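S1.2 Input.
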Amino acid sequence: MKFLIRILQGALIGLGAVLPGISGGVLCVIFGIYKNIMEFLAEPFRTFKTHVPKLIPIGLGGVIGFLGIANVLSVLLEKYPAPSVCVFVGLIGGMLPSLYGEAGEQGRSLAFHVSMYVAMLAIFVLLVVLQVLNVVITPNFGWYVFCGFCLALSVIAPGMSFSTLLMPLGLYEPFVAGIGHMDLAVLIPGGIGALVTVVLFAKAINALFQKHYSVAFHAIVGVVIAATIMIIPFRSFAESWRSFVVNMLCLIVGIVVAVLLDRFNQKYDVEKNVP
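S1.3 Output.
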């Protein structure tokens, strides 16, 4: 059962990585596996035996979600964009209480809440600026390296959705399409960008969590809140009563799934701590 739950979590993380506005790193945090992933990326040789066996099903699920299910959901996003996004908003929102509780494991203080609100404001400003600067560029090797950088950053820096960063630049669709079709002209530069990002930033971010756990985690909560609010399709809610009802039902579905997954996590102690 644990193995299947981890595959499901990995699939959702893979979906979150490819869906517009969703951060794979946020879902890693929500599912309680972010610290394990960062510890492995920061020190792969020391943590190989303890971390890899439990991260393998997560990785398998991630591949399934990113390359398989994501292709199906891309069609749903094209035909039913608002309801699809609402499901993920509900999923993230339903996990926020658990996330906030984990942030306060070592206590809370004014400084921790300040870090949360500052991070929230920073992400709001960043995402608004990205929406305002609607610049379209021509994809090439260098820009695909940048895409790989953004993809890796969305995992090691929760709240940073690579789709949110790439869509304003016109790079999101060609990059995802290239990955889905296993295009080496996209995979090679994307892989280079992702690898360089992990090497340069994973150890630093992991050290930040070890030394300033509460401050960093409360900042993540702020990032999650801001990033989630920014992707809510408010205009769709106001279009008609039918749209409002459908979107609300999708939100509820996402919340219910989140609560069930959280209960599974607590029941089977999935990935909360590595022994």
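S1.4 Remarks. The chain has one domain: 2-268.
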